[in-house]
Specification:
Layout lengths: L8 H10 L5 H14 L6 E5 L5 H6 L5 E6 L2 H8 L7 E5 L12 E7 L7 H11 E12 L5 E3 L4 H15 L5 H7 L3 H6 L4 E15 H10 L1 H9 L1 H19 L7 E14 L3
Bound molecules: S-adenosylmethionine (SAM).
S-adenosylmethionine (SAM) binds next to helix 3 and strand 2.
Length: 272
């Protein structure tokens, strides 16, 4: 089954504006793993479920060629509109049917996307297209452990964020629950003996209140909620921004909050 929750033009432009680029810490872990297992040269990386291309662009300086693939044409249109990356091309297609010859790919990545794939068909394609010792890197973050800090009101901001997640919870698909479980089942199903799962990579960053609310808007469960009840969903966003600003005692949504995120990464290398 293919999940088509990211198809709308609106949703794609929210993705382009508000989704995080994966942190450099996680990128470094992936590149070091690839270096250790397969070594240079890094010719072709394929970024599956690339969305609007944040992870594809992060990989671009490290590979001769990067191909971003997604089933949503609207997401790809947004990705293609970002100038300055001559070695990236974007293709419409699914992780379960990869348009690459056998043994041709150095690195297959999926950032916050692998939970949407059909596990066994994706893994069988990965085994086919990867070069010997080529690598899979599936990364994501576990939003349950996100922590917010602003002066002395971090706990209260965490509480607001948690309440928003609870409101959206009934609209969570099973697939998002798979991501919240840090891809444990997918990791177990990888047939390569050489594999590891790093469960907790703590990353500190900062984000404006406006962008945090925009990020909430990008969640598939928020989009599902909005489909069902557009006015209440819009109210939730406005009200959340208002509550954050009141707690912080500021008026500008551009005020920055410190954010602690917990990333995870599943790594595997195809046998020789
Ligand atoms: C949560 S978004 C992540 C996008 C981006 N990688 C990021 O880090 O923000 C998941 C993306 O996976 C895509 N997707 C879902 N199922 C897919 C499949 N079977 N093959 C390829 N892409 C898929 C969706 O269209 C969506 O753009």
């Amino acid at each position: 089954m293919t999940y088509r929750l990211f198809e709308g033009k609106d949703h794609a432009s929210i993705y382009q504006r508000y989704r995080f680029t994966p942190p450099v810490e996680v990128k470094n872990i992936i590149l070091q793993y690839l270096d250790k297992k397969k070594g240079q040269p890094h010719v072709l990386a394929v970024d599956l479920g690339c969305g609007t291309g944040q992870n594809s662009r992060l990989l671009a300086p490290h590979f001769q060629e990067v191909v971003g693939m997604d089933i949503s044409e609207c997401q790809l249109e947004e990705a293609r509109a970002v100038p300055g990356y001559a070695n990236i091309s974007y293709k419409k297609g699914s992780a379960e049917e990869l348009p690459f010859p056998d043994g041709s790919v150095d690195l297959l990545t999926a950032a916050s996307a692998a939970h949407w794939f059909d596990q066994s068909r994706f893994l069988s394609e990965a085994g086919r297209v990867l070069k010997p010792r080529g690598c899979i890197a599936l990364l994501g973050f576990s939003d349950i452990n996100t922590r917010l800090h602003y002066q002395d009101c971090g706990k209260r901001l965490d509480h607001i964020y948690k309440e928003v997640r609870q409101t959206l919870h009934p609209h969570t698909s099973n697939q998002v629950a798979v991501a919240d479980g840090k891809l444990e089942e997918l990791y177990s199903a990888i047939p390569f003996p050489d594999k590891e799962r790093i469960e907790c990579i703590q990353v500190n960053s900062s984000i404006s209140v406006r962008n945090l609310v925009g990020f909430i808007q990008s969640f598939s469960m928020f989009q599902a909620y909005r489909k069902k009840d557009p006015l209440t969903a819009e109210d939730l966003l406005l009200n959340t921004q208002k509550r954050f600003l009141e707690e912080m005692g500021v008026t500008s949504p551009d005020t920055e909050i410190k954010q602690e995120l917990e990333y995870f990464c599943v790594l595997a290398s195809k046998p020789q």
